[in-house]
Known about the structure:
The chain folds into 2 domains: 4-120, D-amino Acid Aminotransferase, Chain A, domain 1 (2-Layer Sandwich); 128-284, D-amino Acid Aminotransferase, Chain A, domain 2 (Alpha-Beta Barrel), CATH 3.20.10.10. The protein is 28% helix and 29% strand. The protein is built from 7 helices and 15 strands. Strands 7, 8, 9, 10, 11, 12, 13, 14 and 15 form a 9-stranded mixed β-sheet that branches. Strand 13 (240-245) and strand 14 form a beta hairpin. Helix 5 packs across helix 7 (268-284). The protein is globular and about 55 Å long. It starts with a strand and ends with a helix. The mean pLDDT is 98. 4'-deoxy-4'-aminopyridoxal-5'-phosphate is lined by residues 35, 182, 185-187, 206, 208-211, 244-246.
Amino acid sequence: MTRTVYLNGDYLPETEAKVSVFDRGFLMADGVYEVTSVLGGKLIDFAGHCARLQRSLDELAMTNPHTPDEWLAIHRELVARNGIDEGMVYLQVTRGNPGDRDFAFPPAGTPPTVVLFTQAKAGLADNPVAKTGWKVISIPDIRWGRRDIKTVQLLYPSMGKMMAKAAGVDDAWLVEDGCVTEGTSNNAYIVKGNRIITRALSNDILHGITRAAVLRFAREAQMEVEERNFTVDEAKQADEAFITSASAFVMPVVEIDGAAIGTGTPGNVATRLREIYLDEMRKAAV
Ligand code: PMP
């Protein structure tokens, strides 16, 4: 099936959507993105993703080309045109095409490049992997210092995924100064004695939209949450571990660097949080 994608105001067959070779996104990774899940044809936590997009654009002195209502209308139109029941909508805004390559930002008024496309993923919510969990390895976190901005500069996370693949596992947890920052494309948590431990928000990690919702639900369910750094050794000795992201939701982690975490099977806290998250977010989907 040929997807219909969105490019700068037009809905086009994917084969007809063309972006300049001078686009700042292509030449400089000068762009930001968002990924919003679709369940039952509706958008999950759309307001959260829209708010973070605004923050990423503000941090890079880029103008938001659309209002939240306009973004919502584009998302919905793409979901409808592509008949997406379960999957994701990817959105990217770059600093546009200045007509040449230059390190300096293009003059104000240079239009951004806006691209959105859908990815159909049947069984996203009923993912059988959630019943067995992910295995991870730890690798050094050598990314830049503004990981709170959701830029399209994803080379090291891609390399991390390849290192995980080569090691026969599902993902890599990134480690800086002895402590886990986050996963390649998700936030990382351990559970010790019913206490959920995850790194506090700073420029060191992406401020996960799923993280915010899951911590809110955890607190509402009277679970204890501690936002602080944790080490790989602590993870090895934890009762359970998990990750969160917009497309994996809450995914149990059962092994790190070959050491089983807890019983080596998905834990109760992660399993319960996944259920609560999916229930609540389906109810609030737009
Ligand atoms: N950290 C990183 C590095 C990510 O790439 C992502 C997902 N894009 C996340 C965390 C999770 O964020 P979210 O819950 O908003 O998908």
